[in-house]
Amino acid sequence: MIRIGNVLVSPGEGGVYGERMIEGCRVWDPYRSKLAALIMLGGEIDLLPDMRVLYLGAANGTTASHVADYVETVYAVEFAPRPMQDLLEVARRRKNIVPIMADAGRPGEYAPFVEAVDLVYQDVAQKNQVQIALRNAAFLKEGGRLILMLKTRSVDVRMDPKDVLRETVDALSPAFRVITACWLEPYHRDHAALVCEAVK
Ligand code: SAM
């Protein structure tokens, strides 16, 4: 990952959402992007030029655009019409984002358009986050990884976030082995990032 000083950046054309530029690179703000937060907190994330990524919950393409600056192809799934409009505009300017309007809980709907991927990145903030991850595991290549951004309050507002995290780790096995799990504070409250490896 590219840092200029201690600022995380991505190497792409700017002007996607008003992001700052430094030395021709786009500043990737950890307060706006959970993936940037994970990287800034020391998460060992590979985003390499030959990688394909299935991105679940792409919203308006903020984080997806930074991922696309690093990798070969991003399949960006989003089901809400309003953010999808912005995502389409982002994809129009970046040839390696494939926007897919679909429910990530129904991967059969987009399976015909998606190749095997190296990474599934999920940020859907839904109660059924684990089920969505499990249903999309089939897209991963052998040894592929899942990064799950877990919004604990979406699962159960009354539960202790630590218990939600523990239950999520259990529920992801046996399809995934959790390599690391960390909280995203101070950047994002009540969010944990789980980096997992597919078990096939
Ligand atoms: N990842 C985005 C970023 O960093 O730029 C922010 C994602 S936002 C927290 C969650 C998004 O997931 C929303 O845009 C929501 O519409 C979408 N979403 C939630 N459930 C979904 C589902 N089942 N299928 C597709 N998109 C979903």
TrEMBL record:
Similarity-based family = Belongs to the methyltransferase superfamily. Fibrillarin family.
Q: Which InterPro entries match?
A: Fibrillarin, SAM-dependent_MTases_sf
Q: Which UniProt keywords apply?
A: Methyltransferase, RNA-binding, rRNA processing, Transferase
One Pfam family of this chain: Fibrillarin
Instruction: Cite the source lineage.
Output: unclassified sequences, metagenomes, ecological metagenomes
The family database entries (Gene3D superfamilies) matched by this protein are listed as: Vaccinia Virus protein VP39
Q: What is this protein called?
A: rRNA 2'-O-methyltransferase fibrillarin
The answer to whether UniProt assigns keyword rRNA processing to this entry is yes
Q: Which NCBIfam families match?
A: PRK04266.1-2 (NF003276), PRK04266.1-4 (NF003278)
> GO terms for biological process?
box C/D sno(s)RNA 3'-end processing
Q: Which CDD domains match?
A: AdoMet_MTases
In its UniProt record, a GO molecular function of this protein is: histone H2AQ104 methyltransferase activity
